[in-house]
Amino acid sequence: MMHARFGRRKRGFIAVMLGLFLLMAVALPAGAMAPLKGGHLTVCQSAEPPGLDPTANTAAAIDRVVYANLFEGLVKVDRSGKLVPGLASRWEVSEAGRRYRFDLRKGVSFHDGRPFDASVARWNLEQAMGADTINPHPEYFRGIATMETPDPYTLIIDLKDTDALFLTHLAEGDAVMLPKGDRAPAKTDPVGTGPFRFVKWVRGDRVELVRFDGYWGGERPYLDRVTFKFIGDAAAQLAALKSGQIDVIGSIAAPESAFSLSKDKRFKVFAGTTTGEVILSTNNKAAPFDNKLVRQAMAHAIDRQVVVDLVMFGYGTPIGSHWSPATPYYQDLTGMFPYDPERARELLKTAGYPDGFAATIKLPAIYSYSRRAGEVIADMLAKVGIRLDIEIIEWGQWIERIYKKKEYQLTMIGHVEAWDIGIYANPDYYFQYDSEEFRTAYAKALSAPDEASKAKWFGECQRIIAADAVNGFMFSAPSLAVMKAGVMNWWPDYPTVALDCSEVWLKP
Fold first, then answer.
1. Fewer CB within 10 A of the terminal residue: the chain, N end or C end?
2. CA 468: distance to chain centroid?
């Protein structure tokens, strides 16, 4: 299903709306033609991953290459966003929501021939939750009290308390299964159970995968080979697509090109939904952004719909908190801080900055949307006296200086993991937001016994961080996938962080 909201402004966007109707037309199913086997698919993505082990690094660029293609977890997210069996063929949850019994698939092997069984699954989860773990989200697993493996194909997990997101987290890249033993090779020479196996990583250029003939998934995959090509420049992406060097742009870096490409019969465009939130990330412990009034002033100074219009050419949905409209329990909080420059100036004066102040925003060079959004926002903030110096930094520096060392005041980035509002419960996360009120609400959301309670407490989590203006919540990112007309069965929406090629096939 396609999703786009263009807000109140209609200036010049009739053409974009007409374009969406065209996009909807090309996104319809191709009919009952059976998938064809064979072929080599080349997929372009903007960012090269820093490694290939999703259990050791939070970078979305890793998951987009390896999740569901090379690595698998017990549970999987399908193209509609539903949780479906992965390496577990089925599961049962106790009435209290604390005991999970997983029946594992038989006959599954890793790409190097080693078997997958309950002992391997248990080892992976122990690695994820251990005191010396390298998993970027150990909190997903530290609610596990005990694990039992009564036979090679049964895993029983008892939780310390009810966790409404436990299954969801098992379906993310953090919980994929690696071979038991040495974890070091996974970063550069990964071995998984997925439909494709790793062949080569040419740094700065591409990752190559080939069909795994021993895959448990029946006829899948249909493709012989998949190459992930890394091209950050928007113009270079388009040139590569039009010249035939690549077959798919997973998410086009130039949204303004989506309309024109949708009219070209050689290509098709999907304008779908994602779980991603594009935010003005704010260091809540760096002056003057440790002052809530300053953050609230910024929220009033930014017109989010104009950001969507200018940066994304109308594709995208303004948001008021760290939650995508594509995710259950979403609350529309965009009205909490309406665009009001005068109110922004009043709040700055109350905060002790009647003449505004100067600050620095560090923008990752690899993402064009981030750079464009940062420039638009800097212009808006200047009108209320906040003068931003723009610093463009390479992706590796962004990870090291901002994400790890927290050496920043402001930055601009998309957070693409579903259900990731729990990062606000971690005061050591790079926002450095510390709120007991939020942690209490989040704990109640996780232990909620029914859907109504989940909606209440996840809604309260959204409200708390919105009211605190922890970050500048901009818009929900669209999925703008562009591909040759013969690429079949690509996901129109991205309900999880993945470029899943397991069901893709090529039409002559």
1. C
2. 23
Kind of pairing between the strands at 410-415 and 277-282: antiparallel
CA distances from 431 to 176, 340, 406, 408, 481 (A): 27, 25, 8, 10, 30
Which domains does the chain possess?
14-47+194-274+479-506 (3.40.190.10), 72-187 (3.90.76.10), 277-476 (3.10.105.10)
Split at pLDDT 50, 70, 90, the class of 32 is: low
Whether a cis peptide bond, with omega within 30° of 0, leads into 492 is no
Listed in sequence order, the DSSP H helices in 116-233 are 118-129, 166-170
Residue with tokens 């017990």: 74
pLDDT in tens, 243-269: 999 999 999 878 888 878 989 999 999
Alpha helices in 326-367, H assignment, sequence order: 341-350
CA distances from 111 to 75, 286, 488 (A): 19, 47, 26
Q: Under a CB-based contact definition with an 8 Å cutoff, are residues 508 and 486 in contact?
A: yes
Alpha-carbon distance 284 to 444, whole Å?
Answer: 24
What single string gives the DSSP state of each residue in 106-131? SS-B-TTSPBP-HHHHHHHHHHHHST
Q: How far apart are CA 178 and CA 121, in angstroms?
A: 8
Residue 341: what are its φ and ψ, rounded to 5°? -55, -35
Nearest to 498 by CA among 271, 25, 204, 176: 176
Phi, psi (degrees; rounded to nearest 5) at 382: -60, -30
SS3 374: helix
CB of 263 closer than 8 Å to CB of 413: no
